[in-house]
Structures are given as C-alpha cells and as structure tokens.
Amino acid sequence: MAEIPGDWESDIEYSLLRQDTKDKAMRDQIVQVVHREGPQRVLLVGKSGIGKTRLAKMVSEHETYCGHCETIWLHLNNKFDDELSLYENIAFQIGASNRDENKPEDILEDLKEKIITALSRTKATAAEKLTKKFAKAAMEPSYLLLILDDEGNKTSENKVMEDFGLYKYLRDHFDGNLKVLITRRKDDEIKSEGITEEQQEARSDDQTEPHTALDTERFHTTDMSKTLLKTLDMFHLRDLFHSLLKDKTKTLLETLHWKIDETLVQKSTSLPAAIVVLAKSLNCIVHQKTFTSLSPKQVQAFKDVLSRNEAASGYNPILQLAYRLLETDGTLKDAVVDCFWHSMDFFNHCSCIHYGELITQWILEGYFDPVRSVSKAYNDGHAILVELINRGILKTQEGDMVVPEIAMNNLIDLRHHGLLGRSRLRFSRVYGGDKNKGLGKTRHIDDMIKTARGENIRTILVSGNRLRLETPEEFFEQPHMKDLEVVGLFDPTMEYLIQSLRKLKQLRVLVIRDYDLLPSIEELKDLRKLEVLEVSGASSVETISDDFFEAVPQLQSLNLSGLRIKNSPSSISQLKHLHSLILRNCTELEDLPDMQELEKLEVVDFRGAHNLKTCFGTRFDARRNQTFTSLRQLQLLDFSESKIKRIPMFHYTAVVGKLHSLTRLYLQNCSSLVKLPNLKPLSGLQILDLSGTTSLVDIAAVCFEQKEELKVLNLSGTNLTELPPTISELSNLTRLLLQKSYNLEAIPNIERLTSLEVFDVSGCTKLYTINGSFKDMSYLREVNLSGTRIDAIPELPQESSIWCSKLLVLADSRRFEDYDSWGQVKKAIKYEMSESLTSCVIVDRIQEFSRNASEIVEKKQVNEPWAFDCLGKKGHIYRDVYTYTIPFVDSKNHQEILEIHGSNGVHQDEETLAKSEFVAFVDNSASSISSMFNDLISVKGCWVGMCMDMKILFSGVDVERLRHLETLSLTNLPWLDSVPSNIFKNLKKLSLDCCPSIITLFHASKPHTSFLEVLKIKFCDKLEKVFEEEVELPDLHTLCLF
C-alpha cells in the first residue's frame, strides 16, 4: 500500500472536492460502457464493502437526473419466491401499483401491463427532459437501466431473468435499449455464517452461473470490477474518510494527539465500508447531547483495536472498532448490542426486512424485557434502529426495507451468553425468508403492534396493562381477530385468557410472557398449526401432559422457561422440526426429553435447572440422550447450574468432524459434574465454560485436541489438580480463566498460547509453578497471580501488538496497572524490589541464607526443624533466616518463632502453643487461627500471612489472649477490611503489607492504640483513613506509608 505523500493536515480541506472528482470519474467510465450501442451488461464483482452498490447508485442517479433512462433496481438480497412477488416489487418502485392494494384485478398479467404503461410514460418524459436540457443530446434514445444488486445472495440473475421471464418481458418492450448493471460478491462470499447444511444446499441450487447464455447470446458483457478496485488505495480512502467527517468529529480526532486518522485508513484493509461505518459512528458519538469527550472505555477501544496486528482471515480492525464504540457507548440502550447481533444473524438466514417488522422481532426476542408497555418497547426499538442506520451498520432500501452492512459479518460474538443465549425464540430460523411466515408490515397504534391482511388482523402484540382495558373473551373473539397468526402477550394479569386463545386455529406464533395467573397450558393443544410457542415466567404451571406436543407436530421453537414443572413431556422427542429448545430457570425440573434424534436442534438451553441430576433416562430407559452425535446443527448447549454428573457423548467414529457447528458449551456451576465426554469432535468450539464444576477433578487430554477456534476457556472454581498438556495446543485462545482453582498446583507449558489476552489464576492457593513464559504473547494485557504461591513471575512479553493498559497482579496482591507496555511493568517491579523484597527475592535469599547457615545446622540436632523445611513437619523454628523476611524480628536475641503453616496447625499440642511467645501463621484459615490462638497464653509477637478468607481479625478469640501482644504483622490478607484496635491492650508495633480491602484501618471510636511506637503500612491500595476519628499517639516514633 502506498504511503501518503506531503503534509497530511494541509490538504484535508480539499478531501471532499477530491473525493467528488474521483467518484465522477468512476461513474463516467461505467456510463460510457452503458451508452454503447445494443444491449449492454456491466459487472461489478468483489468482496463486501468495497463500494459496488454505491457506484451503481451514482450511475443510476446521474443517468436518471440527465433524463437518459428509467431505472428498475432489484435488490437480490431479497428472496423472490415467485413471479408475482418480483413484478409487485417492480410495480411498487415505479408507482404502477401499491403493494398494500389487494384488488382482484391486480393479477400478474394486469400488473405487467401497468408496469409497461408506467415505463412508457416515464420514457416520454425523459425524452422531453433531454430536449429541454441538452439539445445536442436530444438525439440519444432513452433506455431502461436494470440494476441487479447483490446478485446471487438470496436470488440469482438466472432465476429473475429466465425462470421468472423478466428478460423476455423487458426485451419485448425495450428491444436494444435494455442495459443491465450487476453487482455481485465473490463466489466464496455468497454464503452465510452459521446457516445449516440444508439451507446451504438449497441456496446452491439457485446459484447457476449467471453469465453464460446471457453473456454470449443476448448482451455484450463488460467486467468493470477493476475500475472500482483501482480506487481502493490509501489516497482514495483517506479522502473518503475526511469527506464523511463532520467538523466536530474532525476536532475530536485532532484532540486525541495521535496520527489516528492516518492509522484508521491504514487499518481499513482497503475496505471503504469500514471507513464509512467508522466515520458515521464517530459523527453519531460527537453529536450526542451529553457528549464532551470519549469515555475511557471508548479511548481504550481505539487503543486495543488500532494497535493490533491481526492476521486472521476476514478480520477488519476498523469494523471491530466501530462495533466496540457501539458496545461501549453508555448513552445507548443496553439492548443495542443484542439488536445489532440479531440483525446480522437474521440476514444470514433471511432476506431484507421492513424496519417495523425488525423492531417487532426485537421485542419478541426479549431484548426489551420486561415489556410493561408495547409502545415504549417499540419506541426504544425505533431509537436503536435509527442509531444503527445513522452509524451505517444498517442500510435502507426501497419501501422502508433494511439490511445490515454485510462486511461486518466476520465479527465474532464473544459475549458470555451471546445472541444464542439471549434470544428467546430464534424467530429468524422459523421465518427463513418466507414472507408468508413473517410478521408483515407492522402498525404501532394504541399501545399495540398490529399487522393486517385486508380487514383482518394478522399479528398483535399487547401488554397486560393495555389488555386490562379489554374483555379477553370479547377481545380475541372479534370477527377481525379470527385469523390471527401471531400473538405476543406480555405480563398479562387476566384470568380465562387461554380459553379465548384456544379458538385461534390459524395461530402459528404464540408468546405468553410472565403470566403468573396461568394454571395450565393444556388448552393450547387445539392450536395445531403452532410453529413457535413460548410460555415463560408462568410460575403457577407445574405439569404438562406427556402427550401435549403430539398435537403440535410443526413446532420449531419452544421456550418453557421459568415454569415449575418437574417432568418434561416425552412428546418433545417427536418434534422433528424443532431447532430451539429453551427451558431456562425451570428450578424444579428433574428429567429431560430424549433429544438425540432431533437433528435440526441448534439451541439446547436448560440453564438454571437446579434439581436436574441426569441427562439420561432411568435404568429402564437407559438409551435416552446417550449421544448428541446426530445433532450436527447444534450451536449452543447449556446445562449450567444443574446437578448433572455427565453430559451426552459426542464421539462416534462414523461422523467425527461433523459437529463443527457447536460453538458454545456451558456447564457453569454444575457442582456434581464428575466427568467430561470426549470433546475432540467439537472442532468449532469457541467458548467452553466449566467454572464452578467443583466435582470435576480431571479433564482428558483429548478434550483440548482440534480446538483451533477456541477463544475462551473458563475453569475457575474447579478442583482440578492439573491441566492436560494439550492445553498448549490452544493457539487461538484469548482468555484463560482459572480463578480459585484451589487444588491446582502447576500449569503445563503455555508458551504456544500466543493469542492470549487474559491470564487469571487468582485465588489458586496451591499453585506454585507455571511452565513456560509469556514472552511471545504479544496480545497479553492482563496477568493476575493474586493469592498463588508463584515465586518467580514467568518472563513477560518482549513486545506488544496491542496498545492498551497492562495489568499485573503479583501473588501478594500488589498491582502494577495503567502501564502502556510490559517493559514499563518490568521497570516498576524492579523499582519496588529495591524498596521491598518481592516473594521471589525472599525465596532466593532464604535459600542463600540457609546455605550460609550450614555450619550452624551441623551443630543442631538432626531432627530439629528449620525455616522452609519440609511442610510435613508440625512446626518450624525461625531464627536467623526469618530475620530477613518478616518485620520486627529481634535477630540479636535469636528469637524463636513457631511457624504454623496450613493444616499443620491442627497437630500442634496445647503445651507447645501455651509456651510460645512468638507465632507465625502462614496460609491458615481464619477459623483455625482463632481456634489455636485461644491456646496461646502469653504470646508477644504474631505474624499472620496469606490467610485468604480472613475478613475480621481474630474473630472469636478471647481478648485475654491478646493482652500481652506487643508486635503484630499482617501480610497478604486480601479480604481483611479493618483491625479491631479495641481488643489490644499493649500493642507497640504494627505492620500491614498488601491488605487491599482495608479502607479505614481502625473503626473503633476509642482505639486502644496509645502505646503504638511503630506503624508501617504498605500496598493497601484502598486505604483512605488510618483512624475513624482524630487520636493522639504520644509514643509513635516511626511511621511508614507506602
């Protein structure tokens, strides 16, 4: 890519003029080809987002303005099911017929006549316009320009021109004056992420090569793709970017003090769509009423994305930045991110959609729950729609239709539950682009959403508050309601509602949300055409008959969340069309239906089934859910918070490699899970969450094989003692989370995890070894070792590929944050080492001191314990060694300090404790310290360190046991929030080191601290006050605050 010459700033003011000049030059080259004699066919082929549609629009607008042509624009990202739908679309564009008219005479042939009449009238008008404007050009014939935009996406050129007869129809009336302009994505892009094999096969059947017969026999075809591609250089994109920015946005970029505009263009991967979306997004942000500056999260988004050297195929940093700016915009509704992902997913399965229908889908999917007012939910949705359009994320087409910016399709949703876990219906899968199954063109009126077909209401969404104004029996039994197909009821509070609904025999979609008064759903059996059923939050429903779903065999989406049922109806296993099965938060559920033959399932979600103990049947029905190998379209599987011991198997040699579609496996807080099946076949897994599976003590090495797409691995709160060595093969892993895995002692070599961004082992109290280093992890931004026994920090990254704040938390909870590079972190650590020995330096010194003390050791008895000797001993006597590692030790008088380490303290006899004057508690529980302290009679010095659960110091200890205490040292107590000073009678020396939760040290109004001589406080990050009130310390001579 060429470098930008000259002074970047000096020529910005001319960018709009230069961009306009370049656009006209491209446009005119296309126009020259179109004006050639005879039928012309022009191709613009390339990847999404390079400006094909934009260029076609410039040509159309110019030629129409000049009176050269009449344009018919067909968006072939719209699925035309038949000939009538095609000609209706054309008639609507040129004003020959109104789509909402359903008159008998508007049959196909009559419609075609109206189209020709309208085009002839327009042609005459165009000729007259030419004569008046350009006398010289008056000799040029007026032609028809047919634009086939995004050809091959949902509908092909062959389907339109041949199968539906459009070529013959237009040829007969325009003869040689027909020109065709086609925009088309590359063949490898005409596909959808996440669609089923069945859909892909159906789509490929319609992908016959569009320019074979047409090319040679009927048109002269010219491929003008290179004309567009030649403009995708740095200079063009720079001018495009600045031509779109508003003055306030330009000022913002200047204040950031980075060469950010230059960087943005360089990071765009030569994709104009990325430049357009980002420029529009920035314009939206700076023109918000409350805007003063970018939020810290938005600034961080710039740093994270723009500094990343990403090589992944299809990854575009600028589109990622535009999404991050949307995600981190605190002024927008929380639902905006859900609506974004829904729009992208919807277009993968369906075609363009009317904006009102899209908003209605958002409401049905639950993104605005709880819905107390349909009007408010619709208005919130409309505000989000406008925001997405203004940012360029959604684009408008004719007739209020919208489509997303397809170039954003390569983004990956890595939110915890993602769209699959947030959507209630997955309605797009039911709709599938079939307009007969859609919601229709919606009307928002009287706190309801309605669609009509003729005089009959087809769709209605209404809240309980609005429904209370009606009589249910009369409301749904009105004549114009008898053909209702879609009903959404939100928080209804009226009885006898089901009796009215059961009479709606045409109902395909029924959503009843938060209906507490509903005692049973049995009467819904009469709705035999149901394809979508949600009855959620109905806490009074305790049973569903076993044969219930035999009556609704066409069901595709089922949501029974929040019911109090204990048994799931076995007839669910007969729903062969089911693709979404959601029973979230059914806390009483004890068994599951047999799902292993439901081959169309994409979502299986039983999150929150607290009483569910097995996925399988009883011993009399042992084959139930043994394997999910046949579920090759499964994308999400969630058994979180259940008590299952095992999950179904995936491995079966005949179909290994065919379970790539499963991207999310959630087993969070499955406390009874003891074993995982072979996960190797799940090659497309992106998120694996096993956090809180406290009974899981082992993971087979094969589970991490063939996981090239795994991004997030959460093993926090497990009791694993080791990790399989195959974890080193997870080269694309970005987050490795192992918090509070208390039994984990070592981590295998992690050097090959070069994509890692977050490494968190905080609270792993037994962890002492991390094999390998971080040196090649250029994307690493967070390392948390808090509460571990890591003596030596693995080598930190040598270089960083992301420009963001770095965070390192050491084992003793010291934090090094807000550094731009790991080099700065290393310098900060080195500086602190010179001030205070870190844990790894302490260990090195202890080993050195132990070697130097060998002569003394030889003079001691063989069995006499020494510092840092075998932990199997009952206790350790610290003499010279300890003087270098803990404060307040009198080395001259050879103090003997009894160390009680971990569980060793339970074996201390009362006599030994009673005689001890100096005691060190290391890695003990708060309760064990309190218990042993009550056996200490005359303790004068006490050292407490690495007590991970201590919140209240010496809770339950007899105050008399503390009356002789003169020296107290507290080190690495992460949850300690204060020191109860009124329990001490003679405290003279107090040291606190790495107690990050303390805000006020002494809360007592009259603390017994008048004898304090020395007070040292280090690395207590949240400390605001030492005393709650002003006090006098007459004997204090040493005060150290770090």
UniProtKB/TrEMBL annotation:
InterPro entries: Leu-rich_rpt, LRR_dom_sf, NB-ARC, P-loop_NTPase. Residues 25-122 form the NB-ARC domain. Residues 191-217 are annotated as: Disordered. This is NB-ARC domain-containing protein.
